[in-house]
Here is the input.
Amino acid sequence: MYDDDNLSVEDMMAENEDDQEIQDAQGDSVTSHAKTKGNKRRHSTCWKNFSIVGDRLPDGTHNIKCNHCNQPYNIDLSRIGTNTMLRHSKRCSMTPGCTPGSNKKLDMIVFREMMAIAIVEHNLPYQFVEYRRVRDALSYVNSSIEFWCRNTAVTDVLRIFEKEKANLRKVLSEVPGRISFTTDLWRVITVEGYLCLTAHYLDANGKLHAKIVEFCAFPPPHTGASIAMKLMEILKEWGLEKKVFTVTVDNATANDNMQVFLKRQLRKNLVYHGEFMHIRCVAHILNLIVQDGLSVIGEALEKIRDIVKFVKSSKNREKMFEACVETVGIQNQNKAGLILDVSMRWNSAFKMLSRAIEFKDAFRNLSKVEPSYKCNPSDLEWSRGALIKEFLSPFTEMTKLVSGSKYPTANLYFMQVWKIESWLRHHATSEDDTICEMVKIVRVKFDKYWDDYSDILAIDAVLDPRLKFKCLEYCYTTLNPSTSKAKIDHIRKKMEKLFGVYKKNTKATTTTAS
Here is the structure.
């Protein structure tokens, strides 16, 4: 039986061409293989994959074989045509361009797993598998699909989660060094609490990885003891209580208490009894310092904020301001416009000042052409704005560094902290009373956090081959030459302690292996 059910439109067109070829060939005697191969009227696509073997047989048939898998056929070309060969070309796994899988039975287990992965990766609702149009499209592709409900989709996703969790547990158990953790918790409007714990580690090739090991509901009270108990529960579940190096948290009082409880429980497994464990969140420290500084200079920013609001209040004013920019000859190749700051984001004040100062001459021109514009800042206010921008610049740079997730960042903080401290020392005696007051307030908060934290930053800088101890000596000397040597010696002792721990662990590992 030779039906055309599996033939495409192109195949049918090729068959029609071959029918004409057969009619022409009926009057000819196919007496030799060479003569058959030389027949230029064979145009069907199947002849790219098949060859005639030998001469025409007495019963009018030909022996034909596939050029790729050597499958033999005996076909009467004058009666049957090329249907059989076309069907074989579509099924033969060795034929270039074929799709043998189209005729295979669908593996529903594999298909459901792929759909579950798609739901997770593309953030689709579980109800996606029940959408009528989705089912219609899938049925069109393969009518043998057995559809499932959203509850089954949930089960499939959870199965994948458990599988990935087991794989991650195996990876973390094989990490050659220790693991640093970051944790944070927060409450939503409905007073529901959540906790997230992320593991940061280097693999055997020195590549940095960050993996979320827990994201769970964590109802109040969020006391230091309860947070410590929850973290210990997570660490034991993953078998990581002996691999902890540091735990980075923000500067809440509860987190300080949590560190005390955690050190007490992990003391035997920590590096040098947990001396290096507690790391304060750099981003949170920066936020606290800058917010204190902005609280003092808020009024100084008000004038610049007002002129930005004036321009951005209507499209006509924005077009007029663009004309002023062209008039004074300011090059604005990136077409960057003014930015209005947001009270909840201190770095937006830096962006607002940067753009406004760049267009300072355009604002002056606007005051000449627009009668309603009467709030242009004075030279003193522009100068104060430039100083505030200079103050915020290293904080903004550090925030960008903190945001990096694909590369180590700890070694980059020290230089930025040094820039901030140098700026504070330089402007402590500024002629502008507002700047002096801001420096005084910021200095208190800066000293509170960075005196203890600078040891870790300094060690990270020494381990950077671009910096080393020479960089530390220069920075400490420029700040205070009288204390520079003592600080360098202090950092050396800290590093010797750290090196001693790793040296001891290496010897123990070598002895066990032998």
